[in-house]
């Protein structure tokens, strides 16, 4: 198991992540495609205490997580550096983020997330760690409206 290091995201890291470019069809997740998400990432007052940069044991920035407390749940967002996607690293990276969320926040009962319905690779990963699809919703992003699955994972104390 890799030792991932979570740090509160700073402006330098945010700028670096904002420039990450994923290949199609995952280019959907490029920050430049959604002005609102990009603004939140780049503005420290909007990022607040929600965004964390993730480093590996060699001190390389490999991804990020954002965490939002919603009553007894934590909603997460995440991104793995583009050159690390599709290499089998997602499970370990996701599990590190889940452990961090559980230890960092006050007794969450569940972790929730939204994922574009076309993103079969991510959906399979989330299901592999115990997330279930709880519904669908249409989300305005990237200049249009897209269908997303809402997924949830109960936390067992």
From TrEMBL:
InterPro entries per record: Acyl_CoA_acyltransferase, GNAT_dom
N-acetyltransferase domain sequence ranges: 4-156
Pfam families: Acetyltransf_1
Annotated signal peptide: none
Superkingdom, natural source: Bacteria
Protein name: N-acetyltransferase domain-containing protein
């Amino acid at each position: 198991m890799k030792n991932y290091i979570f740090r509160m995201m700073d402006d330098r890291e945010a700028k670096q992540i904002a420039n990450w470019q994923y290949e199609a069809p995952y280019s959907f997740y490029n920050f430049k495609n959604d002005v609102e998400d990009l603004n939140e990432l780049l503005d420290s007052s909007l990022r607040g205490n929600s965004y964390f940069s993730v480093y590996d044991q060699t001190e390389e920035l490999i991804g990020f997580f954002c965490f939002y407390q919603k009553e007894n749940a934590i909603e997460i967002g995440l991104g793995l550096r583009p050159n690390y996607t599709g290499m089998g690293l997602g499970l370990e990276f996701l599990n590190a983020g889940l452990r961090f969320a559980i230890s960092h926040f006050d007794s969450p009962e569940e972790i929730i997330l939204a994922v574009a319905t076309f993103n079969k690779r991510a959906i399979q990963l989330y299901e592999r760690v115990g997330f279930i699809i709880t519904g669908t919703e249409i989300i305005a992003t990237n200049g249009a409206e897209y269908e997303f699955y809402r997924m949830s994972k109960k936390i067992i104390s």
